[in-house]
Specification:
By secondary structure, this protein is an alpha+beta fold. It has helices at residues 10-17, 34-42, 106-109, 112-124, and strands at residues 5-6, 27-28, 48-49, 60-70, 75-78, 84-85, 98-99, 136-145.
Length: 173
């Protein structure tokens, strides 16, 4: 079986605490997924600089793509390359502008490990049955933070914030 699994109670954590923290060791990744995971891990080395940081900062590298996820069929469909927008009320740092990040490469879009990770994440979410029959729009960001002696890396320069999403899954690679 190629499914990513865990024995950790992510769903109950989400229901009880609205978040869950799971270590990499608690993921059960089938050996068949190892080559795809390795390719996915390596893709972080090729991210381009995020040109939307202020004050000439350069600690964040990113690529981005919207996907549709169809829970009933488990189908994952990449959306056309589109700017990422957040209204100023949601993200004052980005000031309500369209941000056109580098689009994910075809290799990442079609990576079997990424696709299994998306399916795994969805299965953990405490959603109503009706939500399992409608398409979900996913905004998937690959972000790498680089810290140097000259510049601190800040995953979110604006600080803790809410991106208007019902659910957020963050994986440290």
């Amino acid at each position: 079986m190629n499914r990513i699994t865990t024995e950790f109670p992510i769903s109950s954590d989400l229901e009880n605490y609205s978040y869950s923290v799971i270590t990499g060791k608690e993921f059960i990744i089938p050996n068949k997924q190892s080559p795809e995971k390795e390719k996915f891990d390596h893709s972080w080395e090729n991210l381009k600089k995020d040109n939307y940081l202020k004050d000439g900062k350069s600690f964040r590298y990113r690529q981005f793509r919207y996907f549709y996820f169809l829970p009933s069929s488990q189908k994952i469909v990449p959306f056309a390359s589109t700017p990422y927008y957040q209204p100023p009320e949601t993200n004052q740092y980005a000031e309500g502008i369209d941000r056109l990040f580098d689009s994910m490469t075809e290799e990442v879009i079609n990576n079997a490990f990424l696709r299994e990770l998306i399916k795994f994440d969805f299965l953990q979410l405490p959603v109503q049955e009706t939500m399992k029959s409608t398409p979900w729009l996913l905004d998937i960001h690959q972000v790498r933070i680089v810290t140097t002696e000259a510049e601190n890396g800040e995953p979110t320069p604006e600080g803790i914030h809410h991106d208007e999403n019902d659910f957020v899954c963050i994986h440290l690679i």
